[in-house]
Amino acid sequence: MSDDSRSLTRRDFVRGTVGTAVAASLLGNPLDSSAATAPKSYVALVRNQGALNSSNQVNELVLGEMLTQVLRSVTGKADDASAWRALVRSDDIIGLVHTDHLNRTHPELVEAVKRSLKLAGIPEKNIWMVQGSPEKVKQCNALISLPALKAHWLTGIGTVFKNYICFNGSPSSYHDANNAKLGEIWNMPHVKGKTKLVLVDALRPLCEKGPQPDPRYMWPYKGLIAGTDPVAVETICLKVIMQKRQALRGEPWPLSPPPMVVEMADKHYGLGTSKLDEIQIVRIGWMEDALV
Amino acid sequence: MIWSELNALVRRGLKMAAWPCILSVAAIALNGAPIALAETPKAAPMNVTLPQSAGSWTLSGPAKRVEPQAIFDYMDGAGELYLAYRFRHLDVYEYKSPGQSDILVELYWMESADDAYGLLSGDWGGDAVDLASAPGHGAPPMARALYGAGLLRIWSDNLYARVLTYEETNAAKQAVLAMGSAIIADRSEAMAPHLIQALPQAVGTQFALKPDRTVYLRSHLVLNSAYFLSSENLLDLGLNCELAAATYRRNGVVGSPKQVRVLLVRYPEEAAARKALAHFQRVYLSGKPTDAGDSGVVSIEDGWAGFMLSGRGLGLVFEAPDETSARLFLESSKQALDHVEAFHE
After folding, report:
1. What is the reported pTM?
2. ipTM at complex level
3. Residue B229: which of A6, A10, A28 has the nearest Cβ?
4. Helix %, strand %, coil % for chain B, to 5?
5. Quick check: helix, strand or coil at residue B161?
6. B72-113 pLDDT, tens digit each
7. In this complex, how many residue pairs, one in chain A and one in chain B, have their CB atoms less than 8 Å apart?
8. Which residue in chain A is spatially nearest to B163 when comparing CA positions?
9. Cα–Cα distance for residue pair A180/A161, rounded to 1 Å
C-alpha cells in the first residue's frame, strides 16, 4: 500500500501549496516574470535568426558566435578564453554531458563547445564525452551540461535535470513519480559541485509529447539558454515551453504532469532558485517571439 | 440492446472483414458467457507488407525487432508510454533517399485494438487522413490516421504506427502517406473501445463533449499526462483496467475557460472498483466528508467533484461549476457505464 501522506494531488496545486512556476504549468496560468529586483541568478538567452536554415540545418559560424555571446554573458569576461578560465581550470578533466538520443543535442553545438575549450587552452585529452557513464563522471573535475530543450510526457519537462538521469547508475529508479527526485543526482558525491555551466540547446525545441520527436511540436526557436544555476535555467526553459504551448493553441495549455523536478530541485535539494522574481534574464540577439 | 448495438456498428461503417469478430462476440453474449471488455476475440495478424520503395525512398533493410524488455534501449524515457498499454513488440524500418531526410517507420504491435486506439487517442492533433478511402475515417475520436508536419500516426486494429520524416517536403509527405496506405492494406478495422463509444456527446443542454480531448488509457502515468490527479496511482489503475478521460465544454459561456472533466473507469471486478473509490476518497477528498457511500458530490478548490460506483465501473467528475451540474454528470456517467456493462452481459 502506498504512503498516502506523501501524495501530491491536483488540489495541492490549486491551493497554492506548490511553487508558483510548477503550479502555473499545470493549471495553465501565465508564468509572470517582471524584471527581477534583486536577482539571485542570471540566465543568458541568446538567439540568432541565422542559426538554422529553412531545412533546420545548423549554421556553424552563427552558432559559434552565439556560444561566444553566451560565455561572455554568463561570466562577464571579454573573450572566450577568459570566460572558460572563469568556469574551469586548464588542468581540469572536463566532462561534456549532451543528450545523445531522442531530440538529442545538436552535434554542431557539442563540437562548438569542444572547439572553444581547445582554443581556450584546454588539452583535447582533457575533454571527455561522459553521458551515461558515472565512472567517467567520477574522474571529471568539471561538467558542462548540454541538454536539449524538450517537454517530456512523464516529467513535464525533460531538459536540465533529466540530462543526468544515468549518473546514479540506475535510471529506472527515477521512473514514475520518482522523477521529482532527479535533483538528488546533482548532490551525489561524484556529481556535486562539478557542473560549471548549463548550456541548453534551444535551437529547435519540442514543446509536447517528448522525448519521442514529433515535428508538429518542434519549432525553430534558434536559441541557447545558459547559466550556472541549473534550477534557474530549467525554470526559464519551462517558461519558454509554456508560452509556446499557449501560442500554439491560443489558450492555456497546461503541462501535465507538472514538472515537480523543478520545485524539488529548488526547495528540497537546494540547487538554485525557481522563483522568477529572483532570476534575471539577459537577452542577446534576435528577440522576436522570444516567449520570455 | 445487443442488436441495436450491432446496428449502430454497421451504421458507423464497419468493414466486412471485422464481421466474424463481432458475430462471435454476439454469439457468446447471447449464450450468456461473460466477455472481458479488453479481450480481443480473435488474434489479429502481426505483420504487414511494406513496399520496397516509396517515391525516391528505398527500404534500407529488414525490420529491427524491439521486444518489451528492450524498449528502453530503443527509446529511453519514452518506452513507458507503450508499456502503459499492452505492448507486444515493435518493428522499426528505415527508408533512405540520397540527399533527403530518412523516413522512419515504427510499427507498435499491441495485444488488442483498444490498446492501439489508446496510443492514438493521446493526441488527436494533426489532419485526419483517409488512407483507405473507407467510411469510419472521420474526426476524433473516430479518426484512424492523423498527419501533421511530417508525422503520420495510424491506428489499425491491434497496430499503432508512426511514420516520420524529419524534413517535410511534398515528396516526403507523399512517400509517408504511401507507406501509411501500405500499412493498413488488407487489414481489418476495429471499432473504438466501447467505453469511448459510450461517452455522451452532450450532458444536459449546457455541456458538449470535446472529441479531440478524449483519451483511452489503462495507466496512471497516461492519466497524469491527460489530466493530473496525483503523484501516486490514486485510482489503482493497471493493464487490466480501462479508463476513458473526457472533457466537456460549457455551451454559451463567453470568456470562461472552465471545463468539466469526466473519468469513466472499468475494473476487472467490483471489489477492485470499490477499493479504488476508497483510495480516491481517502487521498483526493482528504478533509471532506467521505461517508457519502457509493455516490456523492463535494465542493473542492476548483469546483464540484463527484464520484459514483456502479458494479465494476467507477465514474468521477471534476471541475463542475455547481452541485446540480456535478450530479447531472454523475447520472450520465452511470448510464454510460451501465450501458457498456449491459452490452457485455
Report:
1. 0.89
2. 0.92
3. A10
4. 30, 30, 40
5. strand
6. 899 888 899 999 999 999 999 999 999 999 999 999 999 999
7. 107
8. A214
9. 10
